[in-house]
Amino acid sequence: MVKTEDTPDMADGWREVFKRSRVLPPPSQTVRLALDNHFTQSLGSQLTLSRLTAAHLPQAQETTGGGQEVTYQLRVTLFDRSHQHFFGNTWKSPSLRMKNKKIPVNEVLYFHTSLRLPSTVVVLELVSLSPRPDGSQQALGRGFAVLELFTNRPEAQAADGDRRLNLHHGSPRSLLHPLVKATDDYSSLLTTIDGAHLDCAVKNHQALVSVMHLLPENVLISGKEKIPGLAASPTGDSLLRPQPLKMLPFTLHRLTISLQPSLEKFESQLLQLINDDCRNTKQPGSEAALRTVVIQERRLLVGVHNGWCFLDKPQVVVLEAAAAGSRGRADSTSKQSAPVKDRSALSTLPHTLGLRGSLELKLTNHHALAIVFQLEWVFSAPMGRETMLSAASTSRAAFLQCLRWGAWCPFRESADWKGEEIQLVLQGGARPNPHAVMVYRTEMSAKAQSPAPLSAPGSAQAKDTITFRLSSAPERKASSPKASLRTKREDESRRRRSPSSPSQGQKNIQPTSPPESPQGPGLSLSQLAATSRYPTISHSSSALPWQQSFPSLLHPSPLASAHQLSHVACSGVGNIAHLEMDLHREGDGPLSAQDEGDQLQELPFTPVHAPVITLGVSMPSSSSVGSRSSLAHLYSAGFPDIVDSAGQAAEVLDPTEPVPFDPQREESDPLQGNLLVFQFLAFNRIPTAGVAANWPENIHFTFQFYRFPPVTSQQLKLLTSDKVQQQAAGLLPCVLASINKDGTFNSASPGLQVQFRVDSLKPGERRWFLRYLALHTMHIDVWDSDSLLLIGSTAVELKYMLRQGKSAVQALHEVEVLTTDYLGDDTLLTSTDVGLRPARTPMSVHTIIRGRLHIRTGNIGCPVDPSSRRATDVMASHLNIITPRGGSVGFRGGSLSSRNTLQLNGRNAAQAPGPEMEAQPNLNGPDGRRRKLDCMAAVRRREGTDEPKVTDRTTEARFAREPHQIKPSGKHSEAEAIGNMLSRSITTQHLLYAGLGAAEYMEFVLKNPFNVPQTVTIHSDDPELSVITTTEEWAYFKALTETPTPLEENMFHLEEGAPGPKVYLRPRESIHIPLKYQSFLCDHTVALQGPSFQPTHKGSQVAKRNLSNIVAAKTIKVTFSAEDGKPMAICQLNVEPTPHVVDQTFRLYHPELSFLKKAIRLPPWNDPEVGDPDVRTHISVRCSDPNVICQTRMLAPGEPQDVYLKVPGSPSPHIKMFFVMVFTDRWMAAPSQIWQIYVHFLERVDVSCVTGQRSCQSLVLRGKQAVRKVKCFSSHPQEIQVDPAGVFLLPPAALQELQLKLQPWRAGSRFLYVNAVDVEQRRLVTAWLLCLNVHRPVLSKAFEVCVPVCGGRGSSRKITYTNPYSSSRAFLLRSDHPDLLQFKEEKFQISGGETYTIGLRFAPSQSAGSVEILVYVNNLEEKTEETFCVKVNYS
Q1: How far apart are CA 82 and CA 84, in angstroms?
Q2: d(C-alpha 1232, C-alpha 1179), whole Å
Q3: For 332, which of 427, 1000, 1075, 1124 is 20 to 30 Å away at the CA?
């Protein structure tokens, strides 16, 4: 065994480099600003320091009093002048001497940074060094200069090139003065030293890209310094043309960790200290003082460090506890095989931590290279109210704590460790470490880390150690029993079992493989929860680290109650992490049993889904204001103005500024009515790869506002003025115009205006409507009206429609229309791993901006009808208490007919008017439906105002909706009529407004009219209406609805087989029976895909609230029967449907006739009603479609929670729509989120092709029942051509063959779409989902060219091509980047064996970087003859 101890005598190698490589991080605000400006790639630079001229330095200061000559030193540091912060390191030159008033420097510095901002500068200070009597040196500043690296000022000189910097008096600390921060020109505030300047030069250094992994960012280093991992240069400057050393693969295996005195005692002491510290911060006797912190996971981070930085991201592995020596090391097998005679001796064996499996590391032979181990524990800490955290806190938050670390240099001395076991002592305490974290330290560990050497074998047992073996990859292969088999098949199988690299191992390990220690770089679930990119700010300054919560992707609003979970500020932005199964077939089959035996035990397993970014994650950016030319263009188009009731223009709000929301001001507004206006004005096309520049030509919109039915707009034409577009370089928006029936467009009235009238709401609904406007966004889908393909989605914030006491407001929004594109890993055509790749290929998601929509929103205040307002105000304060009264019973004496009951129902229905929608023009349905709606509305009004006048039509309509009512017929006997009359005399009518998923709570006052006690049985004829028998649930709903009625425990008695619960009543006693109505079912009718048609007249369509078909209207009877079975009282509920609010809309595309497995990820959050943070909030989900499986499962505390969906498939082009309701309260009172999910089922076609080469695929289109005129459209017309390309006739039940010609230009797995559209009806006939697996071609030649940046002219080059055939041939030239490369001739013809010169023209670039461009030489059939790769370096 090789024993080593990580002490300061570790070398003049790694520790010496690590000690002098400490750097200061840049300001976090600057880092975020660089990311916002898309500066994600680090740029290498070279700084050459020539000489420094100091003509006016005093001669007397050149020598000291002792006659010793004064030397000088130049110090260089990076500085952020916006935040007045020095960062990085300070480079110090060797001692310099002055000759003839000049100081030669002759140093070359290198650095790389991604902070390419004008605020990043270099500060250079000249310091004089004079010796002191004690031998040290005294440094005295002589002046400093400031060098600008990146500038955006046109008057400033170029950042690259030779520079002469003036020296300023004073110290660089003067840059920290507040006056200096306010200016960019230091010359006005700093005094320049006359005749003192520094000559230097700055330029980009592209060669530094290959060694950026060896140097951290923002570090100034000289090329003369030795960098571990970098080969020495004979010129002395190793960074001028850097050559990294070759990395060799090594395997780290048989790793165990021993903690003293034992693992149990070590963790027990650790938890005791943490819990004691947590209790000391709480008030004595509080609930938090009784909660404990527990260990959730033990992890080890392993990485290779060169003293400056990690060469690669450290790998994370999970450790497992085991008895010491249980893993069986080679040198201790004899000891383990000995029997244990004493069980007490076995129990006292120290327990260790072990790693199952091995780790793959890449090392290079350098004495300053070290393997760094960091041992860290993941703790789960409870969260409570007293922590004063935000509403996004989790019930148990995970936090990390480093316990031990160690570094071992394998090449520090002779390689005597090969084949031996290495034992390394781990460190703790506040000592600098590569991860820059605080490390746990105890008194025992402090004593164990004394610098005493390891002399005796037993002394190592008193220290925390890590034991492992390190061997090279060839040694591991040689030790394998299959190393002698050299066949290709066995080589590949061995590589699948034991991957040679961490990344390869991750790709090859199947999900159903036995659990092993994860081979990094991988993160466990707890680390994913603990490393959020968005910090949570605690309002308590004394919060401990484990009291800080780690936010997840969905943040419940602090303003949201149990009724509704709303979005705050940027509503819907980054709220839901959307996951989806990829469409590749699974390659693993189920495990077959060898023989019958015991039942297999299920392992903890969570399905893995490929990530998909939808509107929940990649929401459009907040509304912005367009350019001045765009606003002028929209103003001149002649859109209708939004004016108030007095004819004055509405006040304009700025969508980029916050909107104050005062609910009291809204409530006191005299104009209680609201006319909400949406004007769709214009659309900006954005060039997209694969489509034409004039796409789309016609569009339409689909959206849903508040509780109104979904809206599908008519077809709109994008008007383009050639004259105006040429002047604005194609940047002006295209004005939208409606299309008439004859095909012409209405340019006189541009745009589309949709109005929604919300005036008389039911009691309490106005508060929810204002909340909806303040916190929600309206989701809008934009469609191509020709191809019926989804262009993209966007969202408009509705908070700018709050009037806040004004008569009318309006706001102009410019929002981005986004869509997502999925791209898998690309593979080479000739790769031997093509057949061995796993079935599940990782998919990367790209968000694409398809355009910008210009939409104007407005809200016009209008007065409310006083009669309807009085009817609302006079209603009882507690509407959920049903009390039988004389005026509410069904029979009032007189006739036995049901006319009186119908009049009562009409009177109840007239008390709740709802919002109305006016669509200009008519957007939904034919004229017949509008007439029916108007007729039914008139009947309702007549029933509410004139009771005696009830027509036969009203009676028939009411009978149709109330099937349980007695139909007037003369055939009924008198006994039946008397029985019905008595039944109506004890019946109490109650009108109930129900929404999807929302529980409506009510209490029925039941009175025993007899003088003897009664046991009453309660029976409901509808399962959606139930009796609340649980005391906790009853108390929850009473507190939620603020019902001031008594609560009685254990009031109901449940018997098996009884029709309902039973309750005991004393004589003449009245009690309150809690009832709850809740429905999860609704109608799933989906409107046909396509735009609506232009109406024949210009009228307003009124769609009332109670005409929605989402929830069916019904009548429910609750019978209270006495002991003799006769009814004592009857409660009749007339359920009126109320459309619900949709919080999120998802559109998914999936192959037909196959199950869609979907996962929508939610984070855990705390229930504010629960005081104990240890009680997790169990999220419940329900689906409106019983055929869709919807469930959720909770993982470990602090982990995100997934909502799983399994949707059965349907034939193409069927669209399945359903709703998913998410509940965050225990009793599911109201859904916190309602998602509307559309699943588009398409025919799947798998295609394998090569980039740049045309491939053909045949499709079959089947005719329907009628003759159709059909045209086919593709999502990427420049990559997919459909034959026939025009309109063709499709007879009934006929088969039409379609030929697809595919020529993709990007490698990887992609999804494209093809639609067959009926051009007359604008309806979708069939849709195909093309699953492309595009390979890269085989390269024939490779070239490299340098093109200047910002040159304005580009560059021209030539390459030659020789015809390999003996006859004359014609060839075509193609490129995968036509915007960057153009050919002199795209088609040429040469004779056999002759050579042709291909002229290339490279377009200039505005930024530095490199790109690889593929040049395809195709024949006339678009088959690739040869492929060239041209690497273009823009510098």
Answers
A1: 6
A2: 10
A3: 427
Q: How many CA atoms lie within 13 A of 1407 on its CB side?
A: 10
| Statement: residue 327 has pLDDT above 60 | no
Nearest to 1163 by CA among 1146, 1176, 1145: 1176
Distance in angstroms (rounded) separating the CA atoms of residues 194 and 171 = 16
SS3 123: strand
Q: What is the spatial distance between Cα 407 and Cα 375, in angstroms, rounded to a whole number? A: 12
> What's the CA angle centered on 100, arms 99 and 102, to 5 degrees?
70
Per residue in 1265-1296, pLDDT (tens digit) is 899 999 999 999 989 999 999 999 999 989 99
The amino acid present at 995, given as its one-letter code, is G
Contact yes or no for 448/465 (Cβ under 8 A): no
- Residue 440, SS3 per DSSP: coil
Beta strands in 1229-1279 (DSSP E): 1233-1250, 1255-1262, 1268-1274
Average pLDDT, the chain: 75
**Whole-number Å distance between alpha carbons of 820 and 1431:** 29
Sequence-distant contacts of 1408-1411: CB under 8 A, at least 24 apart:
1408/43, 1408/204, 1408/206, 1408/1349, 1408/1434, 1408/1435, 1409/41, 1409/1433, 1409/1434, 1410/206, 1410/1434, 1411/1377, 1411/1380
Asked if pLDDT for residue 869 goes beyond 70, the answer is no
- Render the burial of 248-286: b for 16+ CB within 10 Å, e for the rest: eebbbebbbbbbbebbeebbeebbeebbeebbeebeeee
Could you tell me the sign of the dihedral formed by the alpha carbons of 231, 232, 234, 239, in that order? positive
Distance CA 266, CA 1425 (A): 68
- Tokens 């939610």 — which residue? 1162
Rounded CA separation 1408/1270 (Å): 48
Q: Which 8-state DSSP code applies to residue 854? A: E
- How many CB atoms within 10 Å of residue 532? 15
Rounded mean pLDDT, 100-121: 90
AA identity, residue 1069: E
Instruction: For 1392-1434, give the secondary structure using H, E and C.
Output: CCCEEEEEEEECCECCCEEEEEEEEEECCCCCEEEEEEEEEEE
DSSP string of 977-1034?
HHHHHHHHHTEEEEEEEE-TTPPEEEEEEEE--SSS-EEEEEEESSTTEEE---HHHH
Q: How far apart are CA 821 and CA 807, in angstroms?
A: 44
Provide the 3-class DSSP secondary structure of residue 742.
coil
Helix (H, G, I), strand (E, B) or coil at 580: strand
Q: Is the preceding omega at residue 696 within 30 degrees of 0, hence cis?
A: yes
Residue 474 parent element (H or E): helix 473-479
Structure letter (DSSP) for residue 1155: -
**Chain center to CA of 1351:** 39
Side chain identity, residue 1135: V
Q: pLDDT at position 1175, please? A: 52
Residues 6+ apart with CB under 8 A from 65: none
Pairwise CA distance, residues 150 & 158, whole Å: 9
DSSP structural state of residue 1353: S
How far apart are alpha carbons 1183 and 1218 in whole angstroms?
7
pLDDT (0 to 100) of residue 528: 33
Angle (CA) 257 259 261, round 5°? 150
The two tokens of residue 705 are 């506002």
Residue type, 586: E
Sorted by sequence, the CB contacts under 8 Å of residue 514 that are 6+ apart come out as none
Residues whose CB falls within 8 Å of the CB of residue 506, separated by 6 or more in sequence, listed in order: 499, 519, 522
For residues 958 and 221, the model is more confident at 221
Q: Which residue has the tokens 């955006």?
A: 152
Q: Which helix (H) or strand (E) covers residue 1193, if one does?
A: strand 1189-1193
Q: Using the 8-state DSSP alphabet, how is residue 410 labeled?
A: T
Q: Which amino acid is at 227?
A: I
Please state whether the predicted TM-score (pTM) of the whole model is above 0.85: no
DSSP-derived letter for residue 1061 is: -
First-to-last C-alpha distance (Å) of the chain? 54
